[in-house]
Every structure is written in C-alpha cells, then in structure tokens.
User: What shape does this take?
Amino acid sequence: MPTTVGADTGADKETDVIRRRIACLALLTSAVTATGMATASAAPGDTMNMCGSQLTPAGYVDTQWWNSWSCGSGTFNPNMKQIKQLTGYPVGTEVNACASTWPPAGWTITRSYYSGACRYSAVPSFDPNSWTLRRTS
Assistant: This one.
C-alpha cells in the first residue's frame, strides 16, 4: 500500500515521543547540573535556606532553625534551617553555628552556649545547642 505524503504513521509518532523524551531529559540534566554548580561556587559566608530533613552539605554549618509550612510539617518541630558556607574563610576566622551538624574539617569548637535561634528540637532545653567555631587550618 502506498503512503500519503504528510500522513503520520505509528513509527513517526513513536520517533517523535522518543525525541521529546530525550529533549526533556537533556533539559532536566542541565537544570540539575546548574543547581549543583550554584552550591559549589558559593562564597565564604553565603547563606541559604533548606528543609531540615535535607542533609547539610559539606563545608556548611547550620546557623538557624524555625518552623515553616513550606517543608510540609504540621508539627511544632523546627523543620527549616539556614546554612552558611565556611569553605574559603582564612585561618583565625570565628563564626557561630548550631550544634546540629559537626563542624567541617579545619574548624575547631572553641565555645559552647545556648541560642534560641538554634532550637532544632520540639523539646526545648537551655542546654548548649550552639558553638563558636574557629578556622585552624
């Protein structure tokens, strides 16, 4: 049987679907790569907010906790945090951080204290929950 010029065949439609899927995957891959690069190129002291259920990336520390509906919790547990980039600071720099993550390599805890901004538990206490960190190497 002859085919009419311009008529869609099942094979043509399948090829179009495959091409569209490849294009979508390429766009998604470039978006994920661009997002990852933004974190990698952060300057010392840059901050960003993220849900508390996400792991704090290497080179960052938690600096504040609070509740937010954007992270999907209807409880009183703090579920959002601000993180700060520490990579690139010179030796001798001091920063304050929540004790909810360990300091990055090259940073030493010099003091522990309580801070209302670092309440990362629904059961508050006045026990030390924050640190002063010093860049030592």
